[in-house]
Amino acid sequence: MRRIVITSGKGGVGKTTVTAALGRKLALNGYRVVLVDGDVGLNNLDVVTAIERRVVYDMSDVLAGKCRAFQALVADTLSPMRILPSSKDSTLLTAQAFRGIVDGFSEFDFVIIDCPAGIEHGFHRAVSAADEAIVVTTPSASAIRDADKVISLLAGYRLSDISIVVNRVRPDMVSRGEMIGAAEIGSLLHTPPVGVIPEDDMITLYQQLGTMPQSSVSDRAYDALAENVANSTKNFVDVKYRHRLFRRR
User: Fold this and answer.
1) Closest CA to 107 of 144, 82, 127, 140
2) What is the rounded CA–CA span in Å between residue 136 and residue 112?
3) What are the residues whose beta carbons fall under 8 Å from the beta carbon of 95, sequence distance 6 or more?
4) pLDDT of 204 over the 90 cut
5) CA 105 to chain centroid
6) Res 171: pLDDT
């Protein structure tokens, strides 16, 4: 079982969307995947995956003994993936209790944890249950600076791997030198990119439906991300020109 926490230095960089899309890609490739919403209070993984109307139990019910963890899992509608919804009540959710829930999913190949943005208590609780970390950032200066802070904190944990996903890259701006590229961001953060996701208007249109449009530029980029994560490789699709993707080796 691989336990991967997906985090970010700030909100609004697309962390939860990356979590959902990566989980689905891995599940569609035959891996047993469960997503755990560790963002207590601001939980919206159920909304992004469009399962919110089918939630019966959540993490607080598991901790209160009202159900077992597997009974709280909700099946994704687009893949064999399962999702454990979070709750608005964090009274019983200690770091030890959270790790206990994650460790209980040993029958899965991947447990992917959607971490709260920022570096408060919820961040440490989520990271303490993981063996690997992926930091989501965008090419903006503030997001890169915040990602650097998060990576520094992650270095204090016993993680086997730390990598980044550069989200919302504008290929046309990168080609004109108006936006920093993923390779340069990786160099600045001293952390290799495991995925590069281009800006895609289709994501905004389809997020309300809880799905990712197939054959879009971002969809192909998520295929490459899932391949890297599954194989523990760092070959990433770097965006050079609009609607064209070039694989870096």
Assistant:
1) 82
2) 14
3) 124, 125, 128, 129
4) no
5) 18
6) 84
Sequence-ordered alpha helix ranges (H) in the chain: 15-28, 45-48, 59-63, 69-72, 95-103, 121-127, 141-154, 171-175, 182-189, 201-206, 217-231
Residue 249 has pLDDT above 60, yes or no: no
- Give the integer Cα–Cα distance in Å for 188 and 91: 39
Nearest Cα to Cα of residue 126 among 53, 59, 226: 59
Whole-number Å distance between alpha carbons of 113 and 35: 6
Strand (E) or helix (H) holding 6:
strand 2-7
The residues near 146 (Cβ < 8 Å, ≥ 6 apart) are 8, 9, 10, 137
Q: Is residue 43 scored above 80 in pLDDT?
A: no
Q: List pLDDT tens digits, range 167-192.
A: 999 888 988 889 999 999 999 999 99
Closest CA to 137 of 188, 201, 172: 188
* 3-class SS of residue 155: coil
Neighbours of 11 (CB within 10 A): 14
Higher pLDDT, 219 or 155: 155
